[in-house]
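writing this on my phone so excuse typos. first protein, seq and then structure
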Amino acid sequence: MAECENTNDVSIAEPSKLCDLLDRGWKIFEEVDIANEPLGSTSIQVKVKRGISMLEEASRMVAQLDLFSRNEELEEIATADLKYLLLPALVGALTMKQTSRDKRLEIVQTARAYFMDFLKRCKEYNTSQFELPNSTNESTSPDEESKNGNLTAKSVPCPSDLVSMAAQRQAKIERYRQKKELEARLSDVRRAVDSGQADDEVSRDFYLLNVRKWITVCLDEIESIDQEVEILKKIDGLKQGAAKQPPQPVRPPMKPFILTKDAVQAQVFGAGYPSLPTMTVDDWYEQRRNQGVLPDQAIPRKVTVEDTDAKEREEEDKEREAENDDESSLLKARNWDDWKDTNRRGYGNRHNMG
């Protein structure tokens, strides 16, 4: 940033304060523009508001001092006063850094007004060759488009619209190229200006390069703002339409019903379905268990105990006979073993042959 210079008698009224306000506001914008913190953070938003306040105060002072006039040429402006041409552009750029969602439409429209003020003044002084955008965002709502019969034409671009879009694209590419060239030249001149060793010609070139660079920035910003304003207006229209609609009444849930031939039949035969259960499955199970009629409580358990006792008694009898060496039992066992040796298993079994 260049140091304050006092080369114009008109700006001697309060030179240090006016110059200090511009330099501090400009520095705040550069800090916010390259900050690594989120734009919505409290510290950044505090800086943005402080910078806007400083630059707006500087703009009011410039208007009171009447530094610029439509009757003079660019060459007639003093070198020390050239940088004050940037005030509306810097205020608009800082205004765009605000992140209030509820006031977004107001923010972008305010920033557009600042950018247009800067471009108009640059156009009056013929600082650069460019086409001034429309003063207002000439966009119609969908209802107006349908009334005018332009909805179909808007949805399908005509050849003239395609030519206009191609021209806008080419102009944007050209502005981007000019911006890069101006930034390259500014980086060379800035060193001499910041060091305080630049003469009047170098300082004048530095401020004019900044003005021309900001012309390209403002043109791009206005183009983006016009698109955003159109979207924001449509969103507001949708919200207002939704708010106007009366709330839908909450319908009570429908009760189940059975179709019958007539009311008498319903009274005689009932609703047509069983009554509701009087106990849960667990209650029924507990009741049956107490009665001792469950499958795992009654008959199967007794049968199992009796079979076990019979087998135990049979084994005890066999052991007792073996201990007593009963001759008949031994003879029967030997005969059985001999018979099994000479006859295969199942031989002579004609029990279930029909």
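second protein below, same order as before
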Amino acid sequence: MERGGRLVLLDFFLVTVSLVTHIVDFLVSGYTAYKQFYMRNYAIVAVTALLAFVPGFITSILSCFWLARGSSQSVRPKLPTLFHVFRILSVVFLNSPVSGYVNALYYLFKRHQALLKGELEALQRSWELMAACMMEVTTLRLYFAFLSICPQIILQVYFWLQMETKANSSEGWLEILVTMNSMISITIAATTYDRTFLQTQPDKETMRFSTTAMLFFSHFFNLGARLLAISLFTSLSVEYVALLLGIHWIVMVAWLMLPVLRSSFQFEKILAIMALGVAFVFSFIKSEGSRTRRKYAFYYTISLVGNTSMMVMWFKHGTYPNLPDIQNFMESWIYYLGLTCHYAFFFTGIVLLVLYHMSRLPGRAASVEIRLSERHPN
């Protein structure tokens, strides 16, 4: 019972943090739009608004589509009417993940009640409902994060490099905090998706806090390396960055489609893979299929080659306006600092990824019933 209580507490913590960071993302988008509007950069305001609107519209359409197709039929009748009203409002205001997180918290509460009462059947039912709800909301959040937050991070770093902002001013520190918040938010989105995907598999055990933390920091450092390389290269040419990322997306989509095309052609899976390919441009995400280690090796080899190419081009051709308070700040050691940070982030992420998989190797097969019995008090 004590172990089951810790697992419920961990799930509650992750859902709460995910909900808070998702709300903060909207506040950050509003702050960015307001700042650029105040500076009369109306084109940037339009881009920022577009980065918030398009992912919100797509996730709302997907939420309605899944509800209509019956993916939530097992979940919908168990929720009070007020929750359905809140879901409709979240769809209308293009913020579907919020209602999903609220539903997940509701099922977590039901799961905790069943755990305390020792009702195994109710515990199993509440776990299944929460797992179905979490799979939907983490997928929506994943799409939203990689369609909106990643481009915003690139823009934030780009503005910080290009604009003559004092590095030691309060405004400079605020920009750094905004970027770090975005990094944490997208890392949480990737981590919770991977964790939910693994826990819904019948042969995977429940992830504890230590393995979840290793997965989080592995995503954080790998995403940091990838976004740093893209952001620095963006300062040279926005057009070439768009071209390279487009090519990367095509390669990832083709790679992910191979298992589907070999089995059967399903239009819904093709659409899902095209959306997931956007996430693969920035990070490796768990997906259906076997031979995960070979996928890791292939993906991170491609990423390392692409990152290195962008870093070398930035190192050779990068030029920036001098910061007013630090003479020649961008003309000397900043290049070596950028290279060092990139490779330190990348290889730290790989080491943490190896440690994460090593911690899950021995005797990890467990069915859903075994996982539930571990939560059930003796």
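The CA atoms of residues 168 and 325 lie 8 Å apart. thats all i got for now
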